[in-house]
Amino acid sequence: xxxxxxxxxxxxxxxxxxxxxxxxxxxxxxxxxxxxxxxxxxxxxxxxxxxxxxxxxxxxxxxxxxxxxxxxxxxxxxxxxxxxxxxxxxxxxxxxxxxxxxxxxxxxxxxxxxxxxxxxxxxxxxxxxxxxxxxxxxxxxxxxxxxxxxxxxxxxxxxx
Length: 160
Hints:
Elements: E1 5-12, H1 18-28, E2 32-36, H2 38-41, H3 47-53, E3 59-63, H4 65-71, E4 80-85, H5 88-96, E5 103-108, E6 116-119, E7 122-124, H6 126-137, E8 141-144, H7 156-159
Parallel strand pairs: 1-4, 1-5, 2-3, 2-4, 5-8
Antiparallel strand pairs: 6-7
Helix pairs in contact: 5-6
């Protein structure tokens, strides 16, 4: 098994938001964007707008969490990967499943019932905080950053 070249994992519940992915792809230099989400992977009707938003010349794949765990180690050395997930829970499932994620950028987590605003773009509930703390305990480096050119926000707002 080869070690996949995962450049960055990004938590962003908007998934493949055109400008966001284009800027992050340019910043990290990926040539493969993996959208990892069970719901999206199961509904190919949702793929078309996301493929259109992907930068030209960059492959986009839509996998469930388990499929990603099962095949990530078959990636070739020429595949430079940007993983997009919707939630901290999906990121933790990947890490626990053996996906070698070392760095996570948190971009957008929508506000909702039971969530509190941690930064202008990120809202968390107690379950999110517990998962983020577990990821941190597993040695995953995390930052909160909207765009690559932005200075990262403190993780303290999310974890406490």
